[in-house]
Each structure stands twice: as structure tokens, then as C-alpha cells.
Predict the structure.
Amino acid sequence: MSLKELLLTRYFTLRNLFVGGNVVLVLLLAAAVVKDHRREWKGVQKEFYAREIKRLKEEKKASPDAAHVDKHLALLRGQGIKLRQLMVTALDRYDRCITCHLGYDTVLSPTQETVYDDPPFKARPSDIHRSHPADKFGCTVCHEGQGLATTARAAHGPVKHWEDPMRKGAVLEASCAKCHSNLWDEKAMPFTVNWRKGEALFQKSGCIGCHQIHGQGGPISVDLAEETADKPLSRIDFSFTGLSHEERTLENWIRLHFVRDPWTLVPGDPEGKHNDEPVPPSGMPFFNLSAEDADALTTYVLALGSDRIPAEFLAPAAPRPAPAYRNAVERGRAVYVKYGCGGCHAPDGTGGVRNFNYVNNTTPNLTKVVGTYTRPELQEKIEKGVSPVDKKDPRGPTPSLYMPSWKEKIKGPEMDDLLTYLFSIAEKDEDW
Amino acid sequence: MPSLQEAKDKLINSQIWRSMFRGGTWKDTSRDRAQHILGNVWLHLHPARIRQRAVRFTYTWGLGGLSFGLFMILTVTGLLLMFYYRPSVELAYRDIKDLEFAVSLGMFLRNLHRWSAHTMVLLVILHMVRVFLTGAYKTPREFNWGIGVVLLVVTLFLSFTGYLLPWDQLALWAVTVGTNMASATPFAGAEGPFSNLLGITNANDARFALLGGTSVGANTLIRFYVLHCVAVPVVAGALMIVHFWRIRKDGFSAAPLPGDAPEKKMEVWPNLVVREYIGAVLMLVFLIAWSVLQNAPLEELANAGVTPNPSKAPWYFLGLQELLVYFDPWLAGVVLPGVIMMGLMAIPYVDPDAKRGVGYYSVKERPFANTVFLFGVGLWFVLIFIGTVLRGPNWSWYWPWESWEIHKSLPPPSWSLVLVDLTDKAGVFFSSQKTPGLRIPGFLGIGAALAAAGGMIGAYFGAGLALPKLIHKEIPFRRALWVTAVASLFVGVAAKVAHVFLRHHDFIGKNISQFGPTEIAYVAVVLFIVVLMGFLLPQKFLRTSPQSPVQYVTTMLLLLMMLGVILKMGARMGFNIKYILSLPAINLNL
């Protein structure tokens, strides 16, 4: 008997196929039902109820007449295992976080507090939670993450195809900016410490000299509010970051710019291997910030993002008071910061910021060169700018950094004050 | 106390039972079994008795029946999914998320629906291949073959309309790519040739009718939803009724072979029915296991502002998308699919011998038909494979082991053999964006260019049509194969030699910057395939065939067009030639 005959007449007979097929089909359907039935969150709820009931029973033993304990026990026993969600239609948020984080369920835990320290059972009331009740705000409008998801991984992220993983630690402050426009206000917004630190770093580093925020700023690089803060992940080239697919988030992309050399993140194509024209590497200086500073600056940039928040959620805020300056030099210094001159010429005007394929390699040191100009000459130089700057290797890429024309931006008294400031920091030429 | 048998008899003979089921107590006679089929509304599409050969699994592989089974699975799962899905751009994506995270068995249902749909597309194609190979399209089944071709297209359209419904990035861009082809329709599409003569814009063309707008949006979603859930299934159902009815009326193709003993027939109940049932059960086992193990994809929420690179159509259309590399959209997306459909439907009518090779796998009896058909199906799947697996960002060629993250240089610019410039009134030879080519101004230039392009295309089709019939002598096939192979290689080397002399000319040197072993191989392989398929095979088999002239010309035109695809693939891959003739003034590129 050949193998084929043996298989067909002994094993794969019609009867065997009929019986076997049906049995396997029923088993597989059962497997599908079982797989569907066994969901992660059910176990979490069971454990929570078990812990709570055990704790309450002990509490009852200690003080048998505590009526609230009986009431709470009855409440817990009446709940059953079920999906729980906060439906905030006004914000278009449907957050199932409380399916596992039962300590934040408004029915089960009106005080928003549990005795547990381990997630997902830990819950602590805070001033911010009190002023942002869960049934009005939900969870994800501040914490981000995937509110519809019911597995820990998909809900917290980062997971593939969900672009807003949870904001943890300092960067959570970025969410405040969705409704509050006064994060600068220490009295009204005592919690947004990191954001304020980030703003100070942002101004000191002169980011605005190259970047814009809603169109305001230098023209050299991208608009941080319109592009960066809401950038879809598919537009980001992560290939030089060394990040694993799990770590490829907008937050990490922004943060890397402050702790890693941007030339390694965006190396361009200086030799023109892949493009018709050579492309310089990123023009951004290497800031090499500490982890805390990088967090703060990331918070500041993320806070520039937009979210569709209905008007009734926007918090009223007092206007920011204008700072007072004592003299023209101080005012000029403020102009220098306002337009981000320090981004290229360094916060103290000493320059030295690298510029790929620039004939002098680094940006000019203002304290050295300002003295070689007369006041009208310097004004003209600032107004006209230098674009493009001279190349070192004529076949190489055009240097990323150049001096834009400031004629339309810095005018009148601002220009006067800036010139005064610049001459105040200029080294005096002894020959003069 | 009546025995079990008595109770059963009593039940079966009761008025209620008899009113529902025709026939009385089951006696397991031949008559009973026939009655079981004839008296059952669901089974009576079957004959009562069937030839023994027809129930052999390896004849049909159950492909037609399984395709119908998949249609039923898709109907049931689709119906259940409809309870949870709301076709609006605000809700659709969230509802799909809910299926995954909140609905009992929701993810399983969606997986089963998705995987069944892919399987159905594949099985319908394989069913067509089986029917061809067993000659089952021949008289009297020509019309039913045509219905089958339409059902194939309907199946693709059913799957395609469903693709949009999850409203994620995958859906949005696959449908954008797929529907863009409609805008290349000659006359009726805004980007197609001649449309500018009729005042067709992107707000009144064929694509607009499909999308309900100028881009994929809310109107498209509701349109595709209604098409997917109601309109197309109704059409598919109606056509299936005709398809099955004609099988029954035309008789099943597994007829007795010449020299067989007088045909033996067996009862359909239970012999065929149990086999159909087992087939359906095993397929369900496969699909359910797949659905338990793998989830259907769901990407980010659809965003018209973020184009993925590359954007790909659903896999069964990726062959057409790949053709866009070699042809203008109106050819790749409209004319070629149209020709393929019409060509498939024409097959039974150009086949001269209605009797030969019916009812069994007749490779030897029908060498020409089988070779050409399988070549076409193979080409279709090769194109799908290239489009699916080998195309990465910017539609560049990436081997499976190459990372899409390592950026590839842009390909060198493509060029046209002949360009007719109507605005400047000139004919241009060897024209690309970088090199101006050989420019002959005036009507003389236009005439020369048109004549050259027309001559090339005309010579290809003319020689292709005439040569197999002109050479009457029988060519010894094996020796001819060798001669063709050597000659093709020789032509490749000769082209290389010509290139050595011609490369100093600006337009040749810049457009074909290098001519190495790869280029020689391109010339040789393409030439060999075209001569073998386009000349040697027809010369051997069609020269003496009883085809009428119309049948012969139709066959050869279809064959030559298919080989034209190979020619243009070689020209583009080897030498960056995109067009034989480019006529930008009327969007006409060949």
C-alpha cells in the first residue's frame, strides 16, 4: 500500500475528516470565546474587590459598629465585573482607565483615594484632581494615552499606531497649556514649575532666533507650535536616533534634540549621495542639557501643541505684566533675547556656534566684531542680514545658519536699544 | 412505552413534520437520496445524481464552493459587524476600537471578516485558474465563464469598498491610491487623455462620482459603506444565482473521457454534500485559527494631511499600482485592467476547439492556451509580489532584507524615446528632463516623431501578428529555443557595442549612462521571453489552428499586449525608458 493510499484510506477518510473537522471546529470556536472572555482587566477588578473586601472586613472586626463599612461592602458586592468608563462628550473623550484604576472611579471611590501603593490600585487625591473632577474632564485630556483601550499596554503606550502615549513625570505639565494660558504665573499656577524652567531655557538659548511659534520668530527652522508640537510620527525620520520602535514617540524625538548632538539625529546628506543637491546636517547647536533641563524644555515645546478644546474649558487668565527695565542697555538686552539672537551668537554674544560648511566654521563673536562697525553700519548689517553666508567648500551644501534680514521685525526704539546693548558688550578696540 | 424508533416514525409522519419537510420516513434508498436533494430548497441547486469523477477533490479543489462559503461567512460576520459600526468619520474609527477593546468577540468577528475577505479574493482567482486548466469554460459554458469574470471583479470591488470602513490611515490611503486610477480614465477622468477636450475637471469626473468629492472624505465613507453592505452584495448575489443556475443547466464539466466505461453516477446526497460540508468545515477551522492568532490591522486615525510613504493599494491591486512604474495611469489603471477583463471574457470565443481538453487537466492537449494563460496569471502575481514586498519608500526597490530606514538615492530620471512637443511645434528624440535630446523643430519634426513612434508600435504589433502565419514551415522547437537564447544574448552584446560607439552623443550617453552585464541581461532575457511567447509558441501552435481570422487577431493582440508589459518593464528597469511616445499636450503617453 502506498503512502498516499494509506493516508487516504486509513487516516483521511471522509468519516475521519467529518468527525475530526467538526471536533476541531467546535474546539477552536470555544478557544475564540475563551480568549475573548479572558481579558486582562477582569483579573484586575477581581483582585481589587478581593483586596477591598478583605480590608473592609478587617476594619469591621476592629470597629464592628461602623455603618459606613457595611455600606461600602454592600456597594462593592453589588458592582460585578464590568467595563467602566468616563464619558466626557464635551471633550470627545471616552476613557476606560477607571476599568483598572478603580480608585479613581467616582462611584466606587468618591474620595479618589485608596490605601494601596501599587498600580493600578494606587489612588491619591490631589489639588489638581480636586479642581479637575474626573467626570467632567476624564483622564486622557491631561494624561494622554489611549482612553478607549482596555489593556495596560495599549492604554498607556507607546504602542504602534497610537501617537499620544501617556505623559509621565515633568512633561505632564505640557497638558495644562491646553486650557491655561498663564503657566508663567507662579501664584495662579504653582505646579507648572518645569514649564517655567523650560521657558527660561528657551529664551536664554535663543531658540526663537531660528524657530517660530505660530509664525513669530526667525525663518531658519521649523515652527515649533504649528509643526513640531503636533508632528505625526510618520513624518519623523527616526532612523538615526537608535530608538527602538517602542521608544519612538514625539516626546523622545524632541528631548533627543537637547541631549544628543543634532548632527547625529539629522545628518543631512552633505556629500549629495542621495539627493540632487548636498544637504547640510541640522543647523541646531549641540546644547547637551542635563536630563532635568531637557525635560523642562521638552515640556515647554510639547505645551505649544494644539488640541481641540471647547471654549468653555479654557481657563481665564490675567495678562502677563510687561517687565520693567532700568536703562537702554537692559532694554536692548531684552530685545536681544526676544528675537533669539543668542541662538546663533550665544547668550552672551560671544558666538562660536558651529555652522556646517561656513567659511569661518562658527558664527561671529559679536563682542569682537561689533566694535569694527559704526552705529549706522551695524544697523544696516542687522537690517539686511547675510544670506546666504559664504561656503567653505564650494561644492558642499549651503550652510544651514545665516543672518536673516531683521528690517521688518526689529524697528525704531527696539533697534536703538539693541544697538546700544551691542556696543555695550563690544570689546573696545585699543587703536581707536 | 413506544421504542425510540416508533417515536421517531411518529414524529416524522406527523402533520407538522410532513408539512415542513417533504418526504416521509428515511429508507436510505436511491430514491430517498434523490428526493432529499430535490425536495430541499437549499440543496436543490444540486443535481440529484452526479458523475463519480466530479466529486474528486483534486478536480475542483472545492474552489468554487469554498468561494461561495466565504461569501456566506462574510455575509454573516459582516451583518454582525454592522450592529456595532456607524459609517461617519467622527465615529467609524472609534467603533473599530470598541470592537477590539469593548465588544464581546468583536475583535474575533473583525478578524474573521478581514481574513475571509482576503481568502475569498485569492480563492476566486484560483477558481478561475482551475476552470481554465480543465477547459471548463468551453461550449456551452462560455457565458458562465463571462459571469465568473464579472464575479471576480465584483469580489475585488467588494473587498475594496470594505477597505475604507475602518477609517484609519491604511484605509484612507489605500482607497486614495485605488480611486486615483479612476481619474486617469480616458475622456471621463480629469487626469486622463482627451478629458480636457470635454471640460472634465476633478469636480465632475469618474473619480468624483466614486468618492462623492474631490478627495476621500465623509461622502466617500457613506458611499463605500452602502456599496459594501448593500449594493455590491446584491449584485454579487444576483450574479451568483445566474452562475450556479448555469452550472446546473450546462452540466458539470467533468464529463466522461473518451474510452471510459459507460458513465457511473452517484447520489449527491450524501456523497457530494458531505464533501462540501467537510470542505467548509476545514476552511472555517483554518480561518478561525487565523482569526484567533492574528489581529486585523488598524493604523492611526485617517488623516488626509499625512501621506504615508509608500502609500499602497490593497494587495490585489498592487499589481496595477506596480504597473504605474511602467505605464501612464490611464493605461495601467484603466485600459490594462479593462483589456484584462475583456480578454478573459473573450477566451471562450477565441478558443477554436470546443471539444478538446474539457473535464480534465489538459496541459498536453492545450499547450498554447495553458502556457499563455498561466504566464499571464504568473505575471499578475509577480507584479503583486513586487508591489507588495519589494517596493519601499518613494516606490524604490527594496529587497526583503534591506531596511526601509536606510535611505535610497532617487532613481535616475526616466526618459522617452520620442516626445511630441505641440506647443513649440517640435519632435524630440531621446528626451528626458535633464537632457534636451535630439530636437527637430517644425511640422517636419512632429511628423518624424509621430512616424517613428507609430512605426515602432506598428512594427511590433504588425510583425507579431504576421510572422507566425507568414512562416509556414514547421520550426524544430528545441533547436529554435537554443537559437533564440543565443541570438538574444547576441543582440544584447550588439547593443552594448552600439552603446560604446553612441555614448559620446549627449542624449544617449546621459540617458543610458552605463551598459554593463546587467543591461545585456535585460536585453537578452526580455527578448528571449518575447520571441518565445510572441513568435515561437504561436508559430508552432496557432499556425495550423482552425481559428477564424478574427479569433486569431484577437488572441495575438491580447498576447502581444501582455508581452508589451514585459517589454516596457525591461525598458524601464534596465534603461529608465518610461515612454515610447509622449504627447503632453493631450496627456497621452505610451
User: Anything to note?
Assistant: The two ends of chain A are 113 Å apart (CA to CA). Strands of chain A lie at 86-88, 93-95, 212-213, 216-217. The CA atoms of residues 184 and 196 of chain A lie 6 Å apart. The mean pLDDT of chain A is 92.
